[in-house]
Amino acid sequence: MEAPLPGLSLLLVLLAVGWGSGAVTAWTSPGVCELVQSTADCTGRWLSSVPRNLRGDTEELLLDDNTIQVLGNASLLSYHQLRRLSLTKNRLELIKPGVFLSSQGLHVLSLADNLLFTNYSLTAAALSALPALRTLDLAGNRLTEDMVSVLVWNLSSLESLSVARNIIMRLDSSVFTNLTQLLELNLEKNYIFEIDQAFEGLQRLQRLNIAYNYLPCVVEFSLTQLRVLNVSNNVIEWFLALESDDLFELEMLDLSHNHLLFFPVLPRQSKLHSLLLKDNEMSFYQRLPNGTSLADVTVQFLLIDGNSTNVTTVSLWDEICHSNLSSLHLLDMSQNQVWYLPEGFLAQMPSLTHLKLNQNCLETFQLSEGDPLAMLTELDLSQNQLVELGAEVGARDILPSLQLFNLSTNRLRVLPPGVFAYTRKITTVDLSRNRVDLCPQPAVAGEAETPPCVDIRGVKTLTHLSLAGCGLRGLGGHPFQGTSLMHLDLSDNHQALSGDLGWLQDLALTLQVLSLRNTSLSSAAVDFSAFNSLVRLDLSGNSLSIFPSSLGILKLLSLDLRDNCLPALPPDVARMPLGKSLQEVYLSQNPYNCCTLGWWDSLQRVEGLHVPDGQEMTCSYASHTLSPRALPEPVLWSCRWQTADLALLYLVLALPTCLTLLVAFAVVFLTLKQKLLKMVKSQCGVSSPY
Hints:
The protein is α/β, with parallel strands linked by helices. The chain is built from seven helices and 40 strands. Helices cover about 10% and strands about 20% of the residues. The protein has a 25-stranded mixed beta sheet, with no helix packed on it. The N and C termini lie far apart (about 120 Å). It holds the Pfam family LRR_8.
């Protein structure tokens, strides 16, 4: 596109959104850019060059998603006050050396997703003329480490640099030598397999991202000034910090999605508050599952660097004993191979608030006063092999701050008595996919003790409880007495419901979300009328053949009726309180009758009602499965006959017969009139006028 003629710059349209202090003034450049205050937005305009008719006081120029290939020496000549320039997603191959001579105050430059590898040396000369540049984005330009070294060689003012999504393979001390002011460096999604003292000269570096590369290990980690290190999604097998008493500023370390075999050897002194170790191959080795003890066994790491050899000896099971983790708040060790925790492991983390140990091999987990965890608010032990959750009797300081406790998908049958008595802030408990029953349990004839059960009665702070797939049988009594549950999931319990919902009456005033999915519910007589606070109800996957009448008076926002045996909903459902309040309803996988879809038509006219599975709905007609949204005309006519008023139908059918008989009678009467009259007169003895 050619640049507009200079004279056309007088045709700028002023769009003032108010005058005076703080008013925002918007300008529109003819056919090209939008200007708001000192920002010119020329994104996605198919520009092949930089517009030259913009305001001279433009400070921010956005040229993303265009087709610019070259920045010539005169491209930015008119913009002496330019501070931010973005050329992301163009076809930029060359930036000529003199292009920035008139824009010496440029602070932020984004050149991501271009083709700068073609003329990188000339582009480097252009960048060297930016003494005030603070942020540079070179991501996605097919750059090698040598090209990057040339491009940033003279950029000593840089504070933030991104060279992500390039083809960097190896880093050494020569690549970032002069970046003494650098605070943030992004190297993610390259092909880096080796780093040799590449960051030692970056004394101010605080945030380093090397995620999605091919690093096999991190050894002698010594960047004491670093605050955030992301080395996730590599192939790291071990992480060893330098043995030093120096204080590391490290606050967040992300080693997730690697191949770690051992718990990382962390700095002895640090400010670490988040340690992410998800999806590795970690375990502890103080003892093995076969009973073998490895308490005194060590492993030696042999580090060879040129002619020097360094041997680091580490105990297999107490690697962190010399690390100060008192400031740690978040520990994520999910998706590993941990089957036990060393004694005193959690005692070193008194500030821990979030602990994720899900998807491991834990068989037992001990809650004791030795591991106080007084600050812990979230504990996730789901998807393990837990058969026992231990707790010291009388240990009144166990998990006093716990709010979320996830024990789902284990092999638990019982919890320690009164385990929730000391969790004064517990709000959410997930016991789904365990073989547990709720107290009280009826006594079994011939047995002195009642079956084991989980007692949640009297836990006043509990608001969310999931018991899905627990094999609950015939709930009765008052299992939720003294609680204020708002969310309850009882799905996938085929024997949980025994006729009525009397055992839920203690929740009638508080329960807002109830899932009874796949609970073999078949009786339409189940009474929901007492649950006036319900806003979401899931009845899917059951055997309901009649719509429960008690639902009509509820003011639900969401109702799920999928996968039942319903031939129809009530014709007046849209006029019920339920129909007026519903915002979302699921209806598919039911054997609806194509000839009784009046309720469906009325629901479609309800304003604000969303049927997410409406496209999947079907109905049956004469052994055919059809879509209620597009019924063939013959089917509609046939349905009209089938659903017509029978009395009217009989009247219509009888009317022609009656008319025929009446006409026949009239014809006979007129034909035999004289004979009939004579016969009547002769019978009555009346004399003839003749």
